[in-house]
Inverse folding.
């Protein structure tokens, strides 16, 4: 399987993680972070299961499109042989029950949006988009529940659902029918990637501002603040991770840009943001090495280098 559009955490999840590390999430926001993490874990888990198989095909993750004014998101598309599979990955746990067409969580007592309806909407829009691209391959769509703690009562047999205990057989089938990838499939995959929207208007994050967020370098692994150990090394007392100051500053800048796209990356801003690095000189040096310098004197700031 060729992973042509790899799975990465969304900006929304990344922002929530930073805000969590810098202590600015309410209890409600923490629950939202947990939900986002679970969703991402589910997608990672499914990617892992697909990638460890010997399946010939193309995998595309997280596609966001606008078709005639309607926005829709696709978790995963698999291009295999003559078919295109649209997969919506769900990491729900608990017992659910379908009552009069509604999906109801037995434990919390709450209804959730019917995921089959969402999938159908997505399929319709994607079918139209693919037709416009002149695609002749068949489109099949499924909801995939990856969490073994999930159970659904009253599930009709004709629903496009793959339950945890069926994933293995589903992948076996794919493996059997897969053939080496054709050039036309690559062309279609690249076209589908190029049509993706960059900005996600569904992104919802809690309000925050530079002044109120706690400053310092967050550990990449456990998101606790790191402290200076010696020379140019930082240590996390939470998990024992060590990191060079340079790499911590580069991460700090990326975080800063993610949270404050409208602010300029200046030595002073990054000095304040990273806090633990005592020397402005070091900050300036790392910025000049890893980022492009724009402007002069007081208006000097840095932007990301264009990839070669
Ligand atoms: Zn740590």
């Amino acid at each position: 399987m060729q992973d042509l559009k790899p799975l990465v955490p969304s900006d929304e999840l990344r922002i929530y993680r930073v805000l969590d590390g810098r202590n600015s999430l309410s209890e409600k926001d923490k629950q939202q972070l947990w939900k986002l993490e679970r969703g991402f874990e589910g997608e990672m888990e499914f990617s892992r299961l697909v990638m460890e198989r010997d399946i010939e095909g193309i995998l595309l993750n997280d596609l966001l499109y606008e078709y005639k004014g309607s926005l829709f998101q696709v978790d995963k598309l698999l291009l295999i042989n003559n078919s295109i599979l649209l997969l919506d990955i769900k990491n729900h746990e608990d017992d659910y029950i379908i009552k009069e067409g509604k999906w109801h969580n037995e434990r919390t007592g709450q209804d959730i949006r019917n995921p089959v309806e969402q999938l159908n909407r997505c399929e319709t829009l994607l079918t139209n988009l693919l037709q416009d691209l002149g695609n002749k391959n068949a489109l099949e769509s499924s909801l995939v529940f990856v969490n073994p703690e999930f159970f659904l009562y009253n599930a009709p047999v004709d629903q496009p659902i793959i339950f945890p205990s069926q994933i293995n057989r589903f992948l076996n089938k794919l493996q059997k029918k897969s053939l080496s990838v054709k050039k036309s499939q690559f062309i279609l995959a690249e076209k589908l990637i190029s049509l993706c929207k960059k900005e996600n208007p569904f992104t919802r994050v809690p309000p925050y501002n530079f002044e109120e967020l706690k400053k310092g370098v967050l550990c990449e692994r456990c998101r606790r603040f790191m402290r200076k150990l010696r020379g140019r090394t930082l240590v996390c007392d939470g998990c024992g991770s060590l990191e060079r100051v340079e790499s911590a500053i580069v991460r700090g800048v990326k975080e800063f840009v993610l949270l404050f796209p409208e602010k300029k990356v200046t030595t002073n801003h990054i000095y304040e943001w990273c806090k633990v690095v005592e020397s402005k000189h070091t900050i300036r040096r790392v910025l000049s090495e890893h980022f492009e310098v724009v402007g002069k004197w007081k208006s000097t700031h840095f932007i990301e280098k264009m990839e070669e």
Residues 49 and 168 are 9 Å apart (CA to CA). The first strand starts at residue 2 and ends at 5. Helices lie at 11-21, 27-51, 115-132, 167-177, 183-194, 245-259, 267-274, 280-290.
